Amino acid sequence: MPHGDLIARVSQLHPKRIDLGLERMQLLLQRLDHPERKLPPVIHVAGTNGKGSTIAYLRAILEAAGHRVHVFTSPHLVRLNECYRLGRIGGGVLADDAELSAAFERCERANAGEPITLFEIETAAAFDLFARHPADAVLLEVGLGGRLDATNVIERPVASVITPVGIDHTEFLGPSLRSIATEKAGIIKRGVPVICAQQEPEALAEIEQCAKRQRAALHRAGEEWHVSVERGRLVYQDERGLLDLRAPRLFGRHQFDNAGLAVATLRAIDAFRVDAAAFEAGVATAEWPARMQRLGPGPLVDQGPAGGEIWLDGGHNAEGGRVAAAALGDLEERVSRPLVVIVGMMANKDAAGFLANFAGLTRHIIAVTIPDREGAMPLDRLMDAARGLSMRVESAASVEAALRTVAQLAYEVRPRILITGSLYLAGHVLAANGTPPN
């Protein structure tokens, strides 16, 4: 990509890939004449799992209501452009190479060689880019944590959204659910409504305390708003009334919760006009790649068994594994097939905690390494985690090789295959299959 060399240069400006803090970001934005203060209304989204899907529902609903929506998410799967969506009437478009390179170059010049992380530059580029294009809303995803994340320079969003909080990134956010929730709740601003997904009691207590300190109205799942599944439809209810909506297009019971969180957010604020038809259309049409995504035809799918199902999910922590396993359980109830899990993970993840979710669904795990990714988990460690759960495990040199192995096995019923464990692995799969996000 044209901006690849620029990204490589910027990556050399700080010795650490992740260094949480706001000072460098604040200085750079000052030099850029504060583009973050020139944005349309911002909805800021933090949490451990479900951030991307919730943003996908928010975007789809707002666009269905006729709004232009800028979106910044991370990480990308195949191309950096995926992180930057520019709002347009009728639906947003990914920023093209030229305008994205120009934004990075402006940020690089303003930074003048000072230490800064790549994510900080990426976030500043989003603010710079979005401030130059008119829109009605900005959807902003936290990169890591919240309190000290580069996105947390937005002084007054119209809503702070917190998706389910779980154990992840403990080396940066602390070892306990309480400490992680404290970091996530750091996006809460004084007087700004907080919309909160269902949480473990320990996490919810921290979020409630932070909202109280900031005098921020708190809208909690199961308290101020409710979402349920009735006759296959999404039923949402709050003090303003009831919405009976079509099921989410995204697969899995957890997607009803993510969609409900998006609906609750837009009903808790007055910044946007959204009618019932837009809620219905948005929930039913939202797309988000690598979240229980069934892969379509392509070179990689062709390596697998003829007629088999191949699913892709970027889940990489225990809770991500739980929701993927629950979705697989739903699939098994509909059509029973033998399940094979192809998994590759990063070395800083809890492989046993992730794989334990699949122990009752399959005994066949194929471990792979994530290609061209520093910090990928070694195969022997991943395989030891599976063996510790009494799972049958073998290794393969690549996802393609793993699919060929499954294709050679004698199944009476065509198998169901899940490729999972990392968004980095998911990006490789989408690229290899010729089906990148757009």
Shape: globular
Please write the CATH class name of the largest domain. Answer: Alpha Beta
Average residue pLDDT: 95
CATH topology of the largest domain: UDP-N-acetylmuramoyl-L-alanine:D-glutamate ligase
Q: How many domains, as an integer?
A: 2
Number of helices: 15
Overall description:
This protein has 438 residues and is α/β, with parallel strands linked by helices. It folds into two domains: 4-285, Mur-like, catalytic domain (UDP-N-acetylmuramoyl-L-alanine:D-glutamate ligase, 3-Layer(aba) Sandwich), CATH 3.40.1190.10; 293-432, Mur ligase, C-terminal domain (Protein-Tyrosine Phosphatase, Chain A, Alpha-Beta Complex), CATH 3.90.190.20. Helices cover 37% and strands 16% of the residues. The chain has 15 helices and 17 strands. The chain has helices at residues 4-11, 23-31, 51-64, 97-111, 118-131, 170-173, 177-184, 201-213, 254-268, 276-285, 318-334, 351-355, 379-387, 399-408, 423-432, and strands at 42-46, 69-72, 84-86, 93-94, 137-141, 159-162, 194-196, 218-220, 225-230, 233-238, 241-245, 293-294, 309-313, 339-343, 364-367, 392-395, 416-420. The strands form three sheets. The protein has an eight-stranded mixed beta sheet, with helices on both faces. Strands 12-13-17-14-15-16 form a six-stranded mixed beta sheet, sandwiched between helices. Helix 12 (351-355) links the parallel strand 14 and strand 15. Helix 3 (51-64) crosses helix 9 and helix 4 (97-111) packs across helix 5. The model has no long low-confidence stretch (mean pLDDT 95).
